[in-house]
């Protein structure tokens, strides 16, 4: 592809590709340690006040360059899981921040993969991340006696309250969800203020008062205060190696102009689709043949129902109630487990879910007209790595000249068994909660795996610190390095890994 | 106008505690303090309970025309008791404008760590050197990072000036006094401030024990600060207090009188200019007509999946969208959207034996039901029909006219004011007085 050549920017110590949950914490850590670092972000920077309270108009914060979705259980991308802009997917994330369960890091005995370290290493990192981004939650967490949340819990909205009712009837424990959403105005030492959550329910369209943590209103502020540069609108299309095989330059397009940024080290933090795509495109760091393999997601089935009382489920933090009682159900006939959360969604998302779930005709029109009486409940469940769940390059190219990614994803017996168990439980909760017109809607969420972290270079792409086994100045930090999917939503763990990778890098300098 | 803010210090403090806050507050805010009995230059009283301290403060305040009352830690509990007297009509307190409560000890028995309390009850009973070390330990343990040296020295000196009997009395009894029923709910505006590094009186404790008494509170957390907020963060705190006082000038948000008039809601101050522009453009949009055969086929699909919904405009918008940027993914078995839709329409018409639109509703629904029962991962026709239905359903509920019909007022959480009103409270059956019901109209 031909493009004008831009002036060569000054060489830096480190280039970080991506400013989401993987790139931003380490950017802050490196800048604070005095490393000269620049972040290249494909999207633009935002003033939160410019976000629009409309689902269709939120498109600019989703990664909309088309991906091909194959396999027997094709996954939706775009607004379902992939963001763009300074802040990455944390501009639109749900800010739902459970920690990983220790058992989910030890999946080998259950037919999955072990992480190369245990929860004891992650816990202090979680505590740091939670303090920096501001996580609210119950003062005491029913499934972890040692855990404390500093900020008081969010208000329970109607879907959370009906889920409480259903869980109580069945003896299922529940708690207000841990959420990276401020429940008070929070003032930084420099006076920067994020306002308290106003229960607007538009987390996925971008938070207009900074109550929800994004990397832009947390880590990236720290990074730039310590001298990091964030260069927006930069789509990385190549990594150049020197004669020794190390990365010497990162090549990117900005406004159609091609630039070459010389650097000492590269951190690829572009997520579990764009990271392997760039490595497959450049042919780098793949002596193991594992780049793009072990693609995982989450079983994210939802159950919906109609209630006599008004729910107005658009109001409130959308996923305000959680139960972790099913992380390892006693009667499980599958590996791993799942979290359940209450769900309030906005109309376009709901109409899409119902449609994709096969509701149509008069039933669909009727349900949509009763939006104000609807509430949902959903899971986040483990998926195991399978040989046929892979990301490869398609034979179609996109606007940057790179091949579009093709993701093949299929449920196997384990995912089907987990899904069946969860569906039964959720139906029971919703029946006890008083729902009518119960609908079970299949959904797949998140993007995980493709550049696995592990101890040996023959079956993994990066070592336990996140460094490539093949190229010693290439690092990866995002959800692509996860050895297993975890029942917990990924972003909090990605941020913890980002601090861990940064500290390993700084210690090895 | 200069506002007067009167500070009530915490345990071991005195009126000198407010010097740095007064310095940082600038001209618009004057901060001064009252020494509580047994602290600073105030002699201890025979009675050392909360009520005695309250009466001492009321005496000191009486006659002030207009003032704001601030309390830190122990001082906050006294301030609450004063505010209760004001709400009960004590004429000497008519000038009270609002409360500022810093890491406040709540009306309930304070959730202090039992061991820390036990230790501190044993202090100031030995050698002066020990007392100094204890005072330093107290100041250091209550700040998250090192205080500026001058502030630290002043705070330690204040602890050492405290009358030990007053110190012990608070720890032994004052913080245990249960004022929950006496304080009740105070209508006075309040600014509740906590440090997120505070052990016993941090944000969780304030939310649990303080905020329920103060329905008109603003809640602020100072990141990286502990308990001595006025010393740790005087500059930031001065800004926070000044901004909070200034907000009382802001006009309330006006609501349309007619709850069914959805357009008036969207045109009003509860919706941002950016959102309003998007919604108005959607109402007024006139996408070009789709090619006739395509439009007829897709309107037939709409008649199947969204019966009774006016389809022509939806189909136009959907066709325009499929020729645009897409939504970030597509089924791998399908070509790019524009091509997929052309081919998909042709395939449906073929399956209908000519034109889908030519079938009667029963035959149309039977055919589309059969196609839609196929596997979207395998059948191109099934994948296409699924895409069309999802596109039409999304566009249907995105129309402001349909929002009005559903009574969905989500965009009205806030406009362009510095502070957005949001929705409060939330919960089962909660509908705010201004919210339109289902069946409202866009006109």
UniProtKB/TrEMBL annotation, chain A:
Q: Which InterPro entries match?
A: FAD/NAD-bd_sf, GMC_OxRdtase_N, GMC_OxRtase_C
Record the organism.
Endobacter medicaginis
Q: What is this protein called?
A: Choline dehydrogenase-like flavoprotein
Please spell out the taxonomic lineage of the organism that makes this protein: Bacteria, Pseudomonadati, Pseudomonadota, Alphaproteobacteria, Acetobacterales
Gene3D superfamilies in alphabetical order: FAD/NAD(P)-binding domain (3.50.50.60)
Q: Which UniProt keywords apply?
A: FAD, Flavoprotein, Oxidoreductase
What sequence ranges are listed for the domain Glucose-methanol-choline oxidoreductase C-terminal?
385-497
Annotated Glucose-methanol-choline oxidoreductase N-terminal domain residues:
83-299
Q: Which SUPFAM superfamilies match?
A: FAD-linked reductases, C-terminal domain, FAD/NAD(P)-binding domain
Automatic annotation (TrEMBL), chain B:
Name all AB hydrolase-1 domain ranges. 5-233
InterPro entries the UniProt entry points to: AB_hydrolase_1, AB_hydrolase_fold, Carboxylesterase_BioH
Q: What Gene3D superfamilies is this protein classified in?
A: alpha/beta hydrolase
> Which superkingdom heads the taxonomic lineage of this protein's source?
Bacteria
Name listed for the protein in its UniProt record: Pimeloyl-ACP methyl ester carboxylesterase
Tell me the organism.
Answer: Endobacter medicaginis
